[in-house]
Amino acid sequence: MAATAAAASLMPMATASPTAPVPNSSLPLGVRFRPQPLLAASRRLLLPVPRASSWDDSVAGEEEESAAGGEDDEEDEKPRPEPVASSEFQFAAPPEGYVEPAAFDELPPESPEDVAAAYESLYGPAFSGETVLGNNVYEVKVVDPIDMDREQRPNDDFSERVVQVNRVTKVVKGGRQLSYRAIVVVGDMKGHVGVGVGKAKEVSEAITKAAMNGRRNLVTVPLTKYNTFPHRADADFGAARVMLRPACPGSGVIAGGAVRVVLEMAGVENALGKQLRSKNPLNNARATIKATQMMRQFKDVAEERGLPMEELWK
User: Fold this and answer.
1) pLDDT (tens digit per residue) in 249-269
2) Fewest beta carbons within 10 Å, which of 38, 53, 69, 253?
3) How far apart are CA 284 and CA 282, in angstroms?
């Protein structure tokens, strides 16, 4: 009876197809199980396959598994590119006529003129107004007004005229903060003028800041050969309104307040000006600047109309 039972247990194993799919076929290659020869009549041992230590061993192991696994393992057999050694890589040949540049420490030393020309080509002319490339560029040198005395003003052709200095108060949580506000008109008496405002704890610092602000807001006033306006103009700024009229030679500047200061600093010698509304000096000064920017020279109007200067008044 025992022999008959052993023979019956061995019959399913003998009739099984040798190409049947291997259990756990979805596991990675390194942890799949391979059937081993039958060690006992009643059981079969399944042992893990160790991971291949090299490329050839892994390829050989895959070939054995594909032969034992059957059709299900054919999908795992994918061609892999052969490794390329680093010694086989070659750089492209340089083009004809290529000359390798010299190292930076082997180049001849550069002169200060060469360095200045290189910087100027990248960033423009020097801030001082001098150039090494031949361009006659003039720029107003702006000095930081912080901690600067009145004697340390920029050395340029612009003059300053103080229009008003007021004490202003700022209310904060701890009390009031007192400071001074200055209105300064800057001009060169040649048609360039600007109005600036500055605030500081001291009067001198406020005037200096206002002068710097006026230099940053310069405008050009159109003038005729008699140093007067080419035509009349009116302008508003806030609640202020200013009227400007040209005058014949010898009339002088007939105006008052901030309008007179702006016209004199611009170089106007014969003109009429009138403040029509508010008497605020700052608004009247800026209204005067706005009125001068509304004026145009006769040659500009003639060019726009396509007429010569002689036929402009016909």
Assistant:
1) 999 999 999 999 999 999 999
2) 53
3) 5
